[in-house]
Amino acid sequence: MRMLVPPIVQRREMDRNLVEFFRWEESTPFRRAVGNFCRYYNVKGPRIEWCEYIDWGKAAGKTFQDGRIHLVHPENWKRGRVYKSERMWVQTVYHELAHYLFWADAERKAESFTQLMVRGLKRVGRRRNRAIAVARRKATLGARAGRNSTPLRRKTRRGLSYAASLMRRRRKSMNVRGNRGRRRAA
Description:
Layout: H1 8-24, H2 27-41, E1 47-51, E2 61-63, E3 68-72, H3 74-80, H4 86-101, H5 106-118, H6 130-148, H7 162-177, H8 180-185
Parallel strand pairs: 1-3
Antiparallel strand pairs: 2-3
Helix pairs in contact: 1-2, 1-4, 4-5
């Protein structure tokens, strides 16, 4: 299933506004982020109500059929959660906005929407060493080529343990000496 998400520039701006709201708890950046979301998808803004906890602390957000969204306020999120990261709170907001946007098969669509919204947001501060990137690419291509080539050949005998090499020598010496008859009788 294909989903339409805002361009990376708009997603970064929305993400920046949500992070700013989480850190400083001013309502303006949050309203701006939700407004950008609603303008892009051309939908009416949801009614968002802040809660201390939802479902005895089990849920972080809940979307209702009438368009209301209950969210745990960042102040309470920081206080009462085991995982108190702002990233999880931002992804919870995306998840609930996706529930608001999609109604059919809502849970699966909300999860994939959250992943698409977050993809590409993290900028790498410094560039990777080109030699390392090229080596990784070659190793990956070599591994793929190896998987798609002829079946594996037998292992060489160099890797045998000492006990295995003794057993092999013993069997070999039995065949050379002509002791096959005694072996067959057993």
